[in-house]
Amino acid sequence: MIIANTIEEVRAQVREWRKEGLTIGLVPTMGYLHEGHASLVDKAVTECDRVVASDFVNPTQFGPGEDLEAYPRDFERDCALLEAHGCDMVFHPEVDEMYPQGGGTTDTFIEILSEMPKQLCGVTRPIHFRGVCTVVGKLFNIVTPDKAFFGQKDAQQLAIIKHMVRDLNFGIEIIGCPIVREEDGLAISSRNTYLNPEERKAALTLSQSVKLAKDMVAGGERDSKTVLEAMRAHIEAEPLARIDYVSAVDGITMLPVSELSDGVLVAMAVYIGKTRLIDNFTVGE
User: Fold this and answer.
1) What is the CATH number of domain 2-177?
2) Which of 110, 191, 204, 266, CA to CA, is 20 to 30 A from 232?
3) Which residues pair with 276 in a beta bridge?
4) Is 234 marked active-site?
5) What is the pTM (predicted TM-score) of this model?
6) Does domain 190-280 have CATH number 3.30.1300.10?
7) Cα separation of 65 and 135, whole Å?
8) From 34, 37, 92, 163, active-site residue
């Protein structure tokens, strides 16, 4: 597996692959990889001739007081996982390589001005999706992939990136991949490592509330207020849990809905202790 630290290294290798007529898949990550990321690489390997993964903790998507410095990192471990799953190249730049202005800042951003990034996670993380769109746009320009692969756990991010690709005519197919869960149901996340044993047990309230809502919908309940109230009640019964949001939104626009029809995203963000976790499901899937 090739380890590239500079933009020019990536572009030079991509040019060689293009000369051979090969298709390229991109898996953007912030490192500290787990089986969720591995599933994205596996999917990319099945659909593309060559697979590039980025391993970069992007400072522009972290707001003041968020966990940029504490975000877990283990590049050696990441490389072992990527290579084991058939990744051909990992792009692991320094911050100044991606943001040459210095200090992890830039004067140029990609920002969606609709209500999409202002919903759900965007309420309490107002600059987050601006940073996500900017770094993903940069990666698209650097790697020029045919397809890019993202996890459904970050459903709002996935919807926003699809919107960005359409609006800016990137010509890249965006592939959403299913949430990967632990045996007990907890959605796999790099931030799960922050949880102590008591918090890890408490975190199951997220996946339990997803199951509760799915069962209610399967039983015929379509009123979003009724389902969301049941989810909130379940989460609030856990002393270590503090709700950021529990919402039902249109899966494309991210705007709130009152009826749980097919395609509606039911999503949550919950603090377990100091750790903010997310989970979701889409009605009809």
Assistant:
1) 3.40.50.620
2) 191
3) 271
4) no
5) 0.96
6) yes
7) 20
8) 37
